[in-house]
Amino acid sequence: MWDMSSFLTALLVYSIGTASPGPGNLSIANAAMNHGRKAGLVMAVGVISGSICWGILTALGISAILISSQSFMIWLKLLGAAYLLWLAWKALRDAFRSGNLSTRVTKPHKHLRSYYLQGLGLHLSNPKAALTWFTVTSVGLTSGAPVWQSYLLVATCGFLGVLIFGLYALIFASRMAAKYLNRARRGFDLICAVFYVLVAIGFLLSLR
């Protein structure tokens, strides 16, 4: 039997978790602000692709097996920490780059795949993403729920993720936002760098 209230609660949990500041949101905002709307949107597609991958694995029951493996979680946290430190270095480099947002240069279309891969790698290497999906499915699906409900939940959450992450990219790439973000660009880049480092440290400390 389909418990609609549980399903809607799961969507609310996913929406709040997706909209709240995190590595994915900050990376999308940073890419859009520094490199333009197209870069931000492509990175958003990469992030949501990684999210949907975890969602499908959760629906299949594979993520539960992976999460229960201590060695897998250790390597995933190490990979996630290393990736976040690399993103912190990139944010620091952008922070001390000369120029303002009105003179930013968007990379050619053929190089946009790097933004997609950055977003995809960011989410796939984040152990919290797997745990979040595990929570969402635990809330949204009752015991003995048919498989189609699992995939419907993943698809609906994926659609919400596209809207939320895409909105981040569009807002931070807009001309109106650029007018106000020119002064704050360096500070925002530094905040991103510090946030990445803190999350990476959190991953490493959780290895104890």
Explain this structure to me?
The protein contains nine helices and no strands. The chain has one domain. The protein has helices at 4-19, 23-35, 37-60, 62-67, 70-95, 113-124, 127-140, 147-173, 175-205. The protein is mostly helical and 208 residues long.
Fraction of helical residues: over 70%
Mean pLDDT: 79
* Structure summary, number of beta strands: 0
Uncertain residue segments: 101-108
State the main characteristics.
9 helices, mainly alpha, 208 residues
Question: How would you briefly describe this protein structure?
Answer:
The N and C termini lie far apart (42 Å). Helix content is 81%, strand content 0%. The chain has helices spanning 4-19, 23-35, 37-60, 62-67, 70-95, 113-124, 127-140, 147-173, 175-205.
Layout of strands and helices, then pairs:
Blueprint: H1 4-19, H2 23-35, H3 37-60, H4 62-67, H5 70-95, H6 113-124, H7 127-140, H8 147-173, H9 175-205
